């Protein structure tokens, strides 16, 4: 949490939490204040609110929490709160809509008896009672009240450079529990969803509730208003995310939490950690998404394939991957192997036509449902940003990034290679180098794709990788990047000095190399005389991998030479198949939780640089 929130919390942040005088609401306040956020704790009952404030003194947090009375059903108290925040802070950074009621009365003795029976699902219908007036109040609090507070505080949130809204919801609001087909259809249609549509559903629901037609009109018959209020809130979250792209707004079911009313399975500390995590999301995090605790979930039921069921512990939940340079050869094979293990893969390529053609091939493997294509040019920042936005909207997170896209930075006399069947890797004779032509512009392009393009991708996707519980980055490198192939002693010293290694020092090496390349002084200054830019790019990538692993300890990030694989890049002279090469990369992408990080692998073995 601390690492994820560090950037966001570098300036003083101000938050409002509704329904915060006890239970999870109070705990959300405590956790936010523990992260240095100034919190306005709100409650309908002023006496109880002030008593809750006293409790936070025990945690030494009273200087970071203030109380303000708030009744979501009373517009005047909402206006009063908005005026208070405007006067005191001038803006708002975080709003957590936690206040809610069940819209039912519960037979608490029967509930306790049910909760004590292990493996027995609670029969809510049998132990609850609901009336029209309870339902009306439930919708008014859980949905219209939350809307009211958002609309009142939106002008102050928009003054923040990183506004966050977290709507505490419930899995009860998933569309599978709404049951009315018309309502499900409207709420499923994300493209045409509007507040008016949502209000129309709630009006029709309450009309049928009043006329005692819930069952005949196929509405939920227990927890009815609660289910509809949470489904409406989930829908409103998506609408807001779409209409206010500057906002980061998500809804979350914190799990079945122990409260005054229910025994639950999670402590309030565990339950509160999920909304707080969303409140402190780093820049570029997902928006308009529903979470079940810390996992992205669907608003409607998800069908899990048999492939997923067979996957490892790492793949116990849906995983999302991006593979660059994936329209052919090893990149294509990496996509195939990941998809075969149940990972949802975004296959990328610079050439849109070739990418779409490659996508068609996955039909032959029966994997077309697990692979999608997105155009990507790693040299073009707008293309990288477009991909990041696509992943954010589609999945809300990223679990695996495989940086495979690369070029050699040379022109090879491929006709001669094919005619003589020469092994470019094994050949050591100087005359072989005459088959390879390198120019300054080719070298520049090579560094731009193989090093700076990888950096660009990682920097754009880190906020989404940060949101994974098991983030993996695999940088496809080469043994050519080993330091024994780098004769320049100064550059070698920079890359070997792990303690002082920084991105700036890597760039200093590359700038010096390119200066010497431009001036025709590669040999004079002891730079590699063949595959020069490729060697420097891969050496830099290996060094950057170490920096990343040190900086992002929650990540598993490694670089790998997959071996000398038969590809177009080496005129198909390799000694490994793409399947064998791809396997070495996919293995690192699916490393278990305690896997190594910051290392260089040659095929499946750790190798010194």
In short:
The chain is α/β, with parallel strands linked by helices and 609 residues long. It is 44% helix and 13% strand. 45% of the residues are buried.
What do these coordinates show?
The protein is an alpha/beta fold and 609 residues long. The chain has 2 domains: 2-297, Rossmann fold, CATH 3.40.50.720; 306-606, Rossmann fold (3-Layer(aba) Sandwich). Helix content is 44%, strand content 13%. The protein has 22 helices and 20 strands. An 8-stranded mixed beta sheet has the order 3-2-1-4-7-8-9-10, sandwiched between helices. It has an 8-stranded mixed beta sheet with strand order 13-12-11-14-17-18-19-20, sandwiched between helices. The longest helix is centred in the N-terminal third of the chain and has 26 residues, at 132-157. The radius of gyration is 28 Å and the shape is elongated.
SSE blueprint and pairings:
Elements: H1 2-5, E1 14-17, H2 23-34, E2 38-43, H3 46-55, E3 65-69, H4 75-88, E4 94-97, E5 105-106, H5 108-115, H6 124-127, E6 128-129, H7 132-157, E7 164-168, H8 181-188, H9 195-210, H10 224-243, E8 248-253, H11 268-279, E9 290-292, E10 295-297, H12 306-310, E11 320-323, H13 329-340, E12 344-349, H14 352-361, E13 371-375, H15 381-394, E14 400-403, E15 411-412, H16 414-420, H17 430-433, E16 436-437, H18 440-465, E17 472-476, H19 489-496, H20 503-518, H21 532-551, E18 556-561, H22 578-589, E19 600-602, E20 605-606
Parallel strand pairs: 1-2, 1-4, 2-3, 4-7, 7-8, 8-9, 11-12, 11-14, 12-13, 14-17, 17-18, 18-19
Antiparallel strand pairs: 5-6, 9-10, 15-16, 19-20
Helix pairs in contact: 2-11, 4-7, 7-9, 7-10, 9-10, 13-22, 15-18, 18-20, 18-21, 20-21
């Amino acid at each position: 949490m601390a690492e994820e929130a560090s950037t966001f919390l570098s300036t003083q942040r101000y938050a409002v939490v509704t329904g915060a005088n006890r239970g999870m609401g109070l705990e959300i306040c405590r956790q936010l204040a523990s992260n240095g956020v100034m919190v306005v704790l709100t409650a309908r009952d002023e006496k109880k609110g002030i008593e809750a404030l006293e409790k936070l003194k025990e945690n030494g947090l009273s200087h970071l929490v203030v109380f303000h009375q708030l009744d979501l059903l009373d517009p005047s108290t909402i206006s009063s709160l908005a005026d208070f925040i405007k006067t005191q802070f001038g803006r708002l950074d975080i709003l957590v809509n936690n206040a809610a009621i069940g819209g039912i009365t519960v037979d608490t003795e029967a509930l306790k008896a049910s909760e004590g029976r292990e493996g027995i699902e609670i029969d809510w219908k049998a132990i609850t009672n609901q009336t029209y007036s309870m339902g009306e109040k439930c919708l008014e609090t859980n949905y219209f009240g939350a809307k009211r507070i958002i609309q009142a505080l939106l002008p102050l949130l928009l003054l923040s450079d990183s506004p966050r809204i977290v709507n505490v919801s419930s899995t009860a609001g998933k569309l599978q529990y709404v049951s009315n087909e018309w309502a499900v259809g409207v709420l499923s249609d994300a493209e045409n969803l509007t507040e008016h549509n949502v209000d129309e559903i709630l009006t029709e629901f309450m009309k049928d509730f009043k006329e005692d037609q819930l069952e005949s009109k196929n509405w939920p018959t227990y927890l009815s208003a609660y289910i509809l209020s949470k489904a409406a809130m989930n829908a409103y979250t998506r609408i807001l995310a779409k209409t206010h792209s500057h906002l980061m707004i998500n809804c979350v079911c914190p799990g079945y939490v122990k409260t005054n009313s229910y025994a639950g399975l999670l402590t309030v500390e565990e339950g509160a950690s999920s909304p707080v995590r969303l409140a402190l999301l780093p820049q570029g995090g997902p928006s308009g998404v529903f979470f079940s605790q810390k996992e992205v979930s669907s608003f409607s039921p998800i069908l899990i394939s048999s492939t997923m069921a067979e996957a490892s512990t790492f793949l116990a939940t849906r995983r999302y991957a991006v593979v660059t340079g994936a329209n052919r050869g090893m990149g294509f094979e990496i996509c195939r192997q990941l998809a075969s293990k149940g990972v949802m893969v975004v296959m990328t390529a610079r050439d849109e036509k070739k990418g779409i053609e490659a996508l068609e091939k996955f039909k032959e493997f029966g994997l077309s449902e697990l692979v999608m294509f997105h155009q990507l040019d790693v040299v073009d920042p707008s293309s990288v940003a477009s991909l990041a936005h696509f992943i954010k909207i589609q999945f809300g997170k990223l679990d695996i990034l495989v940086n495979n896209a690369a070029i050699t930075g040379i022109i090879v006399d491929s006709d001669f290679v094919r005619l003589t069947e020469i092994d470019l890797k094994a050949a050591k004779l100087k005359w072989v180098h005459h088959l390879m032509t390198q120019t300054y512009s080719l070298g520049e392009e090579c560094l731009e794709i193989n090093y700076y393009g990888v950096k660009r991708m990682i920097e754009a996707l880190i906020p989404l990788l940060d949101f994974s519980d098991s983030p993996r980055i695999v940088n496809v490198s080469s043994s050519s990047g080993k330091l024994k192939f780098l004769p320049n002693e100064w550059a070698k010293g920079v890359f070997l000095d792990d303690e002082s290694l920084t991105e700036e020092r890597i760039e200093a090496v590359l700038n010096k190399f390119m200066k010497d390349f431009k001036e025709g002084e590669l040999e004079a200054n002891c730079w590699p005389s063949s595959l020069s830019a490729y060697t420097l790019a891969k050496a830099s990538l290996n060094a950057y991998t170490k920096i990343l692993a040190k900086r992002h300890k929650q990540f598993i990030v490694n670089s790998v030479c997959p071996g000398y694989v038969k590809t177009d890049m080496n005129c198909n002279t390799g000694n490994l198949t793409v399947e064998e090469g791809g396997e070495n990369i996919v293995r690192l992408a699916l490393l278990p939780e305690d896997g190594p990080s910051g290392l260089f692998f040659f095929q499946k073995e750790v190798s010194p640089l």
